[in-house]
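User: For my dataset I need records formatted as: sequence, then structure tokens, nothing else. Please produce one.
Assistant:
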Amino acid sequence: MFWADKVREAIKEELKEKIASGEPLIIRDEKTASGRIHVGSMRGVAIHGIIGEVLHEENITNRFLYEINDFDPMDGLPVYLDEKVYGEHMGKPLYMVPSPDGKAKNFAEYYGCEFVRVIEDTGFCPEFHRLSELYLSGKMNTVIRRALEEAATIRKIYKEVSGSERTSDWLPISIVCEKCGKIGTTTATAFDGEKVAYTCEPRKVEWAKGCGYEGNVSPFDGHGKLPWKVEWAAKFVVMGVDIEGAGKDHSTKGGARDIADHIAREVYDHKPPFDIPYEFFLVGGKKMSSSKGEGSAAGDIVSLVPPHIFRLALFQKDINQQINFDPTGETIPVLFDLYDLR
């Protein structure tokens, strides 16, 4: 039995009430556009995309939402970019960093659009959106307020689930500095119900320098961002997610997904989505990093083989098996042979 068929049957059982209601199931995936997006990210796209396809085969309506995360801080400089040009932008939200070509709307849009083209060329048609849109539009305001009000509960979850300690005054929010525009260098110190007091620390992180500014600002409407594990749970709520998988590193006990699931239940009173843990897509036996420019970019790999052959590479192994794509070895010839045998 094809792995997607097995997952579909499990989804039909777990989500049978919503399926019976006729409402579309919401399938979600995302990638941070911190540089040329590596080909490993296509495995998540393929898994979520094929699940949508096999559900449609049984007339189960669904929507596949794909987020280009453009609100994370720029915390790593890809090797192909000039540090003299981008050093001053380290720590800013990606959507506030200039595009490498000077033409795209911003840094994240430049690299995000390249990945969107790869996804579409490979035959997947999700509904794309940007994380900045969720924050700037105010759609995250309610979940931000709830997280700040339940900061003690979130600190408890971090400690009990993963053993990670947070100080008694830690708040789950990063503010965009009003002076320098950086978000990776700020620390929130208090929340009075409307505004957050914060400091932009010069030496908070190694990869960016804060300006030292201290201020008070509303954390809503794009002025603040939740830490990613809290944000993950918050997006389950805001997007109404029913199905969302993740790589095995996130899905282990005490991992990011475990924390997000606890926050969803205990802070937001929300049932976490159906999970699909999956193994990595490696290139030459190695994991990849978009922010460091390590590994093969998705656009480069897709240009080597026709879309139907690349789809076979993504689907041929069970989701609990690693895929090792070696463009200089036998991978591509073997894939063509396998396709011819189908």
